[in-house]
Write a structure and sequence with these properties.
By secondary structure, the chain is of the alpha/beta class. Helices cover 37% and strands 17% of the residues. Bound molecules: zinc ion.
């Protein structure tokens, strides 16, 4: 039986082509995950956001515009965040967790997060799936990090900086990653605000 937890997370979506395939793979594996969405993409793919919620996944904040916080002032960063939260609220998404673009924070990020009740979340295992590595190579690369409390970073869409042409290998990674986690007694869960390391104990 599982007594550990692991969080699979997907950034930069939703994408009309790849996100449904990621959701299908998660459904096939009966696994929950968390999606850190870009608000304009979420608004354009509202049915996918509804599907994520209906299937028990977490939907949390990535950004409105995918810009490093170090390139924004506190004012423009707060504006981007509020624009994203407002757009997500219209989709019945009320984020409690925030993974900033590239995981980069600036000296203002914590204040903007705290003022909006958002908890910042990074990751512990990076698939680097944006590079275009095969699912097999990605699984081997993160093998040692598939452990209790792990937060795995992947992408269900092409973001800025991606050097691959599609997300097929991320889709292909879901089933073997879930199987490996369960072999180690880890159940994939949604990320949780207020829990240690954001993964429920
Ligand atoms: Zn991103």
């Amino acid at each position: 039986m599982s007594d550990g937890r692991i969080a699979l997370t997907f950034d930069d979506g939703p994408d009309p082509l790849w996100t449904p395939q990621v959701l299908d793979a998660l459904a096939e594996a009966d696994a929950r995950a968390t999606f850190f969405v870009l608000a304009p993409r979420a608004a354009a793919e509202a049915a996918l956001i509804a599907r994520m919620q209906a299937e028990g996944h977490g939907v949390q904040l990535h950004a409105y515009a995918h810009i490093r916080h170090t390139k924004l002032t506190e004012e423009t960063g707060a504006e981007d965040t509020d624009r994203a939260l407002s757009m997500l609220s219209s989709l019945s998404v009320e984020p409690e967790l925030w993974r900033t673009p590239w995981g980069v924070t600036a000296d203002w990020t914590e204040d903007v997060a705290a003022a909006r009740g958002l908890e910042l979340v990074r990751w512990t295992a990076d698939t680097h799936d944006w590079r275009g590595d095969s699912a097999t190579a990605m699984l081997a690369a993160i093998d040692d990090e598939v452990a209790d409390g792990a937060i795995v970073l992947a992408h269900d869409a092409l973001g800025p900086g991606a050097t691959r042409s599609g997300c097929a290998e991320t889709v292909a990674l879901v089933a073997p990653l879930v199987a490996l986690a369960r072999d180690r007694g880890l159940e994939p869960v949604t990320l949780c605000a207020g829990c240690p390391e954001a993964v429920c104990p």
